[in-house]
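To whoever is covering the structure queue this week,

Two jobs came back overnight. Logging them here so there's a record in the thread.

Job A:
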Amino acid sequence: MAKFSLGIDFDVIAVMWRREMLRYMRDRSQIFGGISRTVLWLVILGFGLGAALREIEGYSYAQYILPGVITLNILFSSLQCAVSLVWDREVGLLRSVIISPAPMLSVILGKVLGGATIAVIQGAIPLLFIPFLDMRVTPHGFFYALVIMFFMGISITAGGVVIASRLKTFEGFGSISNGIIQPLYFLSGSIFPLRGVIGGVGFLDIPAHLRDELRQLGIFAIGGGWIVQLPIWIQALVYINPVSYQLDLLRFVLLDFEQLPLWADLMVTLGLAPVMTIWAAWSVERMLRRRR
């Protein structure tokens, strides 16, 4: 009889982590998806739309959406890892787990750590475009970005496991994951800021020192530039979206720009991962108990 346990078995964690990595290395479609999303969003949308939106708070549009593209790759890869739970349940791996003495938390921890590692690899693909975006990121910035991506991968993979534990088919997870990824992505400040100045054509004709002085005085709308101020109800959705804080922290370490309180970014990013992992382990254990 398997019982929910908070015990840690490092051998079980290592086996589950290795299994996820082998599955990833055999599935080249994920790498192709990460590259194609980066090209589509960062190169085509970033430079295409950037021709009109020449500046967001001093950054080019491609620079501004870079952390968002990283987040999009992490969302897709983490939920793809989570969906394999449905397959494991169908082919009988989880049935073996039931009769094994392996603590459920260790099983899920191995799975979410594998998902987080894959998320870092997929999320690092857009970082390869930094030399073409005229950005300067310090080695510390790169390291902190990878750490944030890892914690994002843990929390999102664990969240996907919670959802997958309640579903019966791949088709159901596919439709729900699309309904989750898009709201989490678009309501995280990934492509537009919560508020701030977007410089359009003509805005950059104003001398930079004059624009800075005007901003210090609270004057944002001038020339070809305009203020972005999302409606209150959309702002509320952004504030309750945990991905908003993770993305904001990622943008801070890469661009030195944030719009949410830094303490909230850190608390959500570091605190959500263990909470979601325990929730995922409890959800899977409950799912298996019902199927016995």
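Job B:
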Amino acid sequence: MKIKLIALSFVPFIGMLGFLPWVNKVEPFVLGMPFLFFWFVLWVALTSGVLAILYKFDPATREGDPK
């Protein structure tokens, strides 16, 4: 499980920067923003979701577990 959580933590990094050569373009405009700017805004929002998932399944954040 810990390996999966670590792998999940790299998803935003890969999504934001790994696809940069393919998304580095102005058109199409999405929600009035150039595509590259939209890509970054999208990944900021998705990163919040990924962090919420990591927090939910991280064993260190469970209540009631003796440490």
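Note for Job B: Helices lie at 2-9, 11-18, 20-23, 35-57.

Please reply-all if you pick these up so we don't duplicate work.
Q.
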